[in-house]
Amino acid sequence: MKENYCLQAALVCLGVLCHSQAFATERRSHLRPSFHGHHEKGKEGQVLQRSKRGWVWNQFFVIEEYTGPDPVLVGRLHSDIDSGDGNIKYILSGEGAGTIFVIDDKSGNIHATKTLDREERAQYTLMAQAVDRDTNRPLEPPSEFIVKVQDINDNPPEFLHETYHANVPERSNVGTSVIQVTASDADDPTYGNSAKLVYSILEGQPYFSVEAQTGIIRTALPNMDREAKEEYHVVIQAKDMGGHMGGLSGTTKVTITLTDVNDNPPKFPQSVYQMSVSEAAVPGEEVGRVKAKDPDIGENGLVTYNIVDGDGMELFEITTDYETQEGVVKLKKPVDFETKRAYSLKVEAANVHIDPKFISNGPFKDTVTVKIAVEDADEPPMFLAPSYIHEVQENAAAGTVVGRVHAKDPDAANSPIRYSIDRHTDLDRFFTINPEDGFIKTTKPLDREETAWLNISVFAAEIHNRHQEAKVPVAIRVLDINDNAPKFAAPYEGFICESDQTKPLSNQPIVTISADDKDDTANGPRFIFSLPPEIIHNPNFTVRDNRDNTAGVYARRGGFSRQKQDLYLLPIVISDGGIPPMSSTNTLTIKVCGCDVNGALLSCNAEAYILNAGLSTGALIAILACIVILLVIVVLFVTLRRQKKEPLIVFEEEDVRENIITYDDEGGGEEDTEAFDIATLQNPDGINGFIPRKDIKPEYQYMPRPGLRPAPNSVDVDDFINTRIQEADNDPTAPPYDSIQIYGYEGRGSVAGSLSSLESATTDSDLDYDYLQNWGPRFKKLADLYGSKDTFDDDS
After folding, report:
1. pLDDT, tens digit (0-9, with 9 covering 90-100), for 586-633
2. Taking every annotated instance into account, which residue ranges of this chain make up the domain Cadherin (predicted)?
């Protein structure tokens, strides 16, 4: 209430001040003469005259937010020519004229009819003019003036944001800037202290402070620890009027979060960790985990683990699980319970990232002792070697010892071992093994030329626990013996030109040959080429060994002729260098060919000579004549066949079912009982009264009723059929079982009549077979036969 009274008193004072300014303006207007001329001297001595406005006024002011009962007097307009007789009319136009500002057209008094807000509009521009009341003739030129709205402190300060969020590192020095908050005041900053703001902190002491003039928040306490308290809530106030009493204020909330720094080293929660591992564990298997706690977060809390000491450094390793920040102890090499039963490790945990500002806080690492106990396990047998290589000669007799494998049980029990061969690696069963001592033997002779190496796998298993087994690879090399004779390396063939005996022999070989041996190089080359002893003095050809595993074949004479002999077969003996050596006889084919003067081959065929010697010209003419006669006969035969009306082959469309066979024997009908024996329709088993079903297997024997048994030689077809129907209806072995029974009797008194054509009274001429045309292509021939009768009758 006191503040409201003070505001009303201030508004009244401001109103009185405005009235005083208006009266002073009016008084000065009265003092100034109206429409007096003013003379000025021009540059050339010419006197200029201008009219002077007869009424003037100053700038007007009106206070904002005025809530009095009467309109506020803004000011008064008055002209010097106004004598007060009411002939002058004052007109007001411009911004707010007629709505906010009104003028008394007689007195010139201007009033504000509405409450004004400077924050909405700070000033208004208006236009005033004095005119003759009767004629509306302007008495003076229009003049513009401004009405300014005078500010009062009616707007509290407002911050740009309702809430602020800021971060500052923990353990920051006092006075570290955190954030700057800014408030604004809608009041006029040029008038009074309405917009002069002062910042202060309402909540958040003693941790933070704020600068009164700038709004910058700073830390006020040293060594604030994030691990103790991470988040702070601060309330900042902005007050106008320079912070004095009566000023308006606004507040905002600031959430300040302490960010983490690496100011805490990792610490193990215990001094010793106990772990165990089985001796059957494989390398890479996890043994246990350790974890050092670091209250820091993010990269500041990252910890890495290392083994720095201990007797198990060579057997164990540790890795870091960065998701759980744990150290994972793993087996690096196999351990043996019988060799050593316990190990000790010293594990160190250290921070990955260290802040040099806090290095004085001490080493950012910690150590712990890890004790690992080895547990005994039933281990599989162990071979004395990781693999075995044995040798055996090819063609060795079955039962030859190849070699031995040996395994033992590493456990203290030292269980006996049983050996076996993995038959998936010895599908041909070349080998066998003694299950007790591990000696490997052959089961059949081996051929090195087929397989030089044989790879098998041998199992060793404990006799008392077959699941505990080990496997070792065994490579067996088949040693070569000289069991293959050398042969030609290729199917060689030689050519020699026919020539006169007087022509000198050529020093060039007819052909150069080489050999190939399947045996190893130790039993193969060097190869020796020669002629067999029985033709060592061959008059036509000879062989010269080149002593480089090749040989040349040369002609011993000239004068070869195709007419005498066009082909020569030369046997050549090839021996290898094995112990003992082996040899084979290979045949070389040498053809006699025709050559030109330069020795180039022209033809190696002897056909021309053979034809001249065996066939005459007359024989050739006879053969050609026979061939011509045969061709003529074939052409005539084909021509005659094409001229025939009927084709040689029955085509598909002329089906054999179109043949009509006529029988002269016409039956006697249903009543003719002398033409056949009815007893043949009866089942022989039915004579005794029982007819077995062949489509099902009955569960019990059916005994027919005696009254239904027909006479063996009965000729009454009706009784015969009725008997069969009753037997089928009363058969309990498979009711209701579907079956088909065919009878040769049509029955009497049928409404549909008989289907037999023998008793029909009509003739073929009385029937219409045109419907057969609609039965499709299968009945086309039948429709043509029966449907064409009418056409024939019409033609006749």
Report:
1. 999 999 998 887 778 888 875 444 444 455 677 888 899 999 999 999
2. 79-159, 160-268, 269-383, 384-488, 488-609
Based on the structure, what is the number of domains in the chain?
5
User: How far is Cα 395 from Cα 375, in angstroms, rounded to an integer?
Assistant: 51
Strand partners, 587: 571
Using H for helix, E for strand and C for coil, what is the string for 506-559? Answer: CCCCCEEEEEECCCCHHHCCCCEEECCHHHCCCCCEEEEECCCCEEEEEECCCC
Check: CB of residue 285 under 8 Å from CB of residue 316: no
Residue 500 shares a structural domain with residue 591: yes
Same-domain check for residues 525 and 453: no
Question: What tens digit of pLDDT does each residue of 721-776 get?
Answer: 888 888 877 776 645 555 555 555 555 555 555 555 444 444 444 566 777 777 87
Q: Give, in order, the Cα–Cα distances in Å from 721 to each of 586, 695, 698.
A: 92, 20, 23
Is pTM beyond 0.90 here?
Answer: no
Domain boundary among the residues 586, 603, 620 is at 603
User: Token pair 């100011």 is at which residue?
Assistant: 263
Range of the domain at 495: 487-603
Whether 467 and 506 share a structural domain: no
Lookup: tokens for 651: 């085509």
Query: Which two structure tokens, joined as six digits, stand for 414?
Result: 């030292």
Q: Is the peptide bond before 526 cis (omega within 30 degrees of 0)?
A: yes
Q: How many CA atoms lie within 13 A of 492 on its CB side?
A: 23
Nearest to 419 by CA among 465, 464, 471, 456: 471
8 A C-beta contact, residue 484 and residue 577: no
Q: Which of 199, 124, 119 is nearest to 152 (CA)?
A: 119
